[in-house]
Fold this sequence. Notes:
Elements: H1 9-13, H2 16-20, E1 24-25, H3 60-65, E2 71-78, E3 89-94, E4 97-103, E5 109-113, H4 139-142, E6 169-174, E7 178-180, E8 182-184, E9 195-203, H5 215-218, H6 222-236, H7 240-253, H8 258-270, H9 274-287, H10 293-304, H11 308-321, H12 327-339, H13 343-356, H14 364-375, H15 379-392, H16 399-421
Parallel strand pairs: 2-9
Antiparallel strand pairs: 1-8, 2-5, 3-4, 3-6, 6-8, 7-9
Helix pairs in contact: 6-7, 7-8, 8-9, 9-10, 10-11, 11-12, 12-13, 12-14, 13-14, 14-15, 15-16
Amino acid sequence: MSPRICVPVIALAAAVFALSQPAFSQSRGGSTGAGSTGSGASANIPPATGNVPTSNSTSTTSNAATPPPIMVSGRVMLEDGAAPSGPVTIERVCNGNPRAEGYTDSHGYFVLQLGSSNSQFQDASESGGAGGRGSTLSGPGSNSGLGSSSGLGSSSHNPLGLDAALMNCELRARLSGYHSQSVSLIDHKPLDNPDVGIILLHRLGAGEAASTISAAALNVPKPAGKAYDKGMSFLKKGKTEEARISFQSAVDLYPRFSSAWFELGKLQAADSRVDDARRSFLTAKESDPQAVGPYLELALISLHARNWSQLADYTYQALKLNSFDYPQAFFLNAVANYNLQRLDTAEKSARAAQRLDTRRMYPENSRLLGVILLGRQQYSEAADALRDFLVAAPHSPEAPAVRQQLDDLEKKTIPTSQTARK
Length: 422
């Protein structure tokens, strides 16, 4: 039996924000915070195709007033790794409002300049509706809770730069009969690497829908909704105490306000008020049983408490609601089952996380998979997984130990392969 391993809580601590606010957000499954784009694997982008307008630098005055364009590139693939059979629409969704930006080529690649069709971004505050209050239509990337700020849609009223208009926005693919992963654009800036990696498409089954609107989000009274929006605005400005007061006011006005309980819980967790945070997340879960975010936050609390059975339970429940959009749920489930010595289940979950996490946002999953395979004496696959970890996280505190493991593996396997060739 292989030795027990706890994927280091220290290594995961920096990922707590990303875990509760996935880079691959979703359009089903409830409220979470804004996604973190992080760094992902390159999509090996070919020459530009699609909606790529040429730049015009004839007027220095115009260039000084207009923020630089924001480019994005990547590739759309089906869940089984195949390319779509034809062009796929790439759309930007802000507060639940979709806008087509361009199309993929015949191999699924795209290179786009955001907002080029009308030269300016739509003001995120123009969206209206329930998209910003826990609606599962737009998903957690656009339900970031960073609030809407009027005037960010035009260059003349955009002192923060064009990227400020992306605060409540995500990028996704649209193809009839499929559900798309979403990539949060909140941290994507004009001079950043345009590559957003691979966006997977999941073929919808008979009982699945591409998107739904949470009934809990539609029932929020206006006064509570205003308090929530005010809290989100405070969060955007970094005024966490004012945000906490606003979210508390929102749940006082409407005790079944799942999204407000969720945001309140995150602030409590950040203040190390673990018991209060747990109660808030439990209330958020009970108020909107379709929300995935509270399960993930409760899973994180269980992780830090090293309560493996509880961690397994919460991640199972999250995956029952949505087994496509949250690779981190599979990863945490693998951690739980490994420590419970359920190695077959741990391996299955780790492989699922590996398949869905195309941008390698959770490199510790590769290390865990490598350790599991090493215990099974599947040395070649174990080495591949450990190399994958080092590519995704070369400066991790665990990297030196993993390199040593890899060196030891190569010493064991290379002589064997050389003997076989002779």
